[in-house]
Amino acid sequence: MSILNNVSLLIEIVGSLVIFGYCAAGFLVFVTQQNRIRAQILVANGSLLGLSIKLVGAFLKTIELQSWNQLALFTTILILRTIIKKVFQKQNLLSKKEMA
Q1: What is the C-alpha end-to-end distance of the chain, expressed in Å?
Q2: Which domain holds residue 77?
Q3: What are the helix (H) ranges across 1-100?
Q4: What pTM value is reported for the model?
Q5: What is the CA radius of gyration of the chain?
Q6: What span, in angstroms and rounded, lies between the C-alpha atoms of 40 and 75?
């Protein structure tokens, strides 16, 4: 395994931990404060941040793309993450409007 793969894996793990941390914070806000909107905003913001971090890890892996299958897999992952990110952004906007 190359150093680039190790770095890429570490970055993706950090992204996952960010998402997990924000989800846990959102859960705590919901349980302790009964504030669903604030909890949703926390989870959406954390997911956006975590997905952005994970995207960096995925981009690092592209440096070693050597076949069409690897390229297709990367493209699929990139498209899915982009769609999920847009959904979270839209939910975040809706939650902020609902909160105001």
Answers
A1: 50
A2: 3-99
A3: 3-33, 36-62, 68-99
A4: 0.69
A5: 16
A6: 29
> How many CB atoms neighbour CB 75 within 10 A?
12
Distance (Å) of CA 46 to CA 7, 12, 25, 75: 21, 14, 9, 23
Question: Burial, 14: exposed, middle or buried (Cβ in 10 Å; 0-12, 13-18, 19+)?
Answer: middle
- Cα–Cα distance, 41 to 47 (Å, whole number): 10
Per-residue confidence in pLDDT tens, the chain, 100 aa: 577 778 888 989 999 999 999 999 999 999 999 988 889 888 988 988 898 888 888 877 776 667 778 778 877 887 888 888 888 888 878 877 777 6
Question: What does the alpha-carbon distance between residue 62 and residue 73 come to, in Å, rounded to a whole number?
Answer: 10
> Apex CA 75: angle with CA 63 and CA 5, to 5°?
30
Q: Record the tokens describing residue 33, joined without a space.
A: 């404060």
State CA 13 to chain mean position distance. Answer: 11
**Domain count across the chain:** 1
